[in-house]
Amino acid sequence: MSYSLKQLKLETAFTQIQKGNYQAAFPTIRQFAENGDADCQYQLGFMYQTGAGVKQDNDLAAKWYTKAAEQGDVDCQVILAEWYDDNEQYDLAAKWYAVAAEQGDVDAQNNLARLYAEGLGFEQDYDKAEQYWQMAAVQGDDEALYNLGVIHDDALGRDPNYEKAADFYLQAAHLGNADAMVNLGMLYQEGFGVPEDAAQANEWFLQAAELGNETAQLNLGINYAEGLGVMQDFDLAEKWWTIAAKQGNKDAEAALKELAIIRAEMNKF
Q: What Pfam families does this protein map onto (predicted)?
């Protein structure tokens, strides 16, 4: 079969897949996969994993994903890693995360860092976790930057360094990470690593609260109730606690009950 005819046959198979007709595409996809085509090996793995056009078979899915992964297909490396991760086969998960991480995959870098940080599959090692979070952070990943802040903030495997924590949180916050905004706000509120500044803390709490972060909503409510960095305002405290409570925040629910008691006492006079 000439190159052009082979290519036409393969393109026809992928057109069938785009139409959802996996069964018609299967013979060609299998043929090319058996001949070493990594894209077809990935597709065949997907078909067996999901039962698209074939009988669902996880063992065959893993077989074809592995063949593609061994050829350097990053997507398949991550799929395999997440598969083993979900099934608590952390040694195999780590193997494929590491291969994908070295190819620059941010999700693999973050997940491998998590395995090291939690001691899953091997001994807990925050230095290794930091190494892989740094790799993701260099690529501008907000979650990695946040986690780098946490290890310095919470003194995980090292002495606390609030200045470094604040720097990483700030970078993550500028990328829209609400958890980083909350933690940065707490550093400003306590004066750890940054000048103590309740008003600045509330600015970060507000940004995170508007993004739907319930901890920020709770903290903002507390500061309005106590007049910390803002004018005391029970109405705004109630507003933010109500929003947090609707997300299931028990502390906000308790705060609303306490606020109702305070207001009832105030109304007696």
A: Sel1
Cα(31)–Cα(256) distance, integer angstroms: 65
Q: How far is CA 164 from the centre of its chain?
A: 21
Residue 144 and residue 134 in contact, taking contact as beta carbons nearer than 8 Å: yes
- The Cα 267–Cα 257 span in angstroms is 15
**Domain extents in the chain:** 8-71, 72-139
**Neighbouring residues of 122: CB distance < 8 A, sequence distance ≥ 6:** 90, 91, 94, 115, 116
**CA dist., res. 207 & res. 232, Å (int):** 19
Buried b (16+ CB within 10 A) or exposed e, 37-72: bbbbbbbbbbbbbeebbbeeeeebbbebbbbbbeee
pTM: 0.88
Tokens 């690529």 — which residue?
139
Q: Cβ(26)–Cβ(47) under 8 Å?
A: yes
CB–CB of 129/114 below 8 Å? yes
Relative orientation angle of helices 250-266 and 214-226, to the nearest 10 degrees: 20
Give CA–CA dist 95/179, Å, rounded. Answer: 29
Q: 45-93: per-residue pLDDT in tens?
A: 999 999 999 999 999 999 999 999 999 999 999 999 999 999 999 999 9
Nearest to 38 by CA among 7, 79, 69: 69
Query: What CATH class is the domain 72-139?
Result: mainly alpha
